[in-house]
Amino acid sequence: xxxxxxxxxxxxxxxxxxxxxxxxxxxxxxxxxxxxxxxxxxxxxxxxxxxxxxxxxxxxxxxxxxxxxxxxxxxxxxxxxxxxxxxxxxxxxxxxxxxxxxxxxxxxxxxxxxxxxxxxxxxxxxxxxxxxxxxxxxxxxxxxxxxxxxxxxxxxxx
Length: 158
Known about the structure:
This protein is α+β, with helices and mostly antiparallel strands. It has one domain (4-155): Nucleoside Triphosphate Pyrophosphohydrolase (Alpha-Beta Complex). It has helices at residues 52-64, 131-137, 143-155; strands spanning 4-13, 19-26, 39-40, 43-45, 74-80, 86-93, 105-109, 117-121, 123-130. Strands 1, 2, 3, 4, 5, 6 and 9 form a seven-stranded mixed β-sheet that branches. It has a two-stranded antiparallel sheet with strand order 7-8. A hairpin with a 5-residue loop joins strand 1 and strand 2 (19-26). The chain is globular, with a radius of gyration of 16 Å. The termini are far apart. The model has no long low-confidence stretch (mean pLDDT 96).
């Protein structure tokens, strides 16, 4: 069965007119001391009969600890990840600036085989990143999402 996720890619222009995107550092011990290829767009799984935009907004709120900003969300596309997961992505221009990030958590036995189960945040940080930064921070499978955003902005004159 195909795993489906829905996510939101916020974008804005910096004071120097550089494109910036809102990305999140994945939480948990595997990602703890990694920066390159350890960031993602805010996203999460949804059921087949669920509206992907509603799911993307819910998942954004769960991972950021604050609702997705009020914005005009535009479907950016559907992207297959190397794992086989399908991500439906919506984009919006926003100057989102939460006071703090408070993500939902997940439980994980760590170290593996230790019998100790701990709780970890799904997201332990989030920030605006310039395009060049995002290209090194995002997990490789999400680079086509960034490319699609850039192409959409070019095509629309943005």
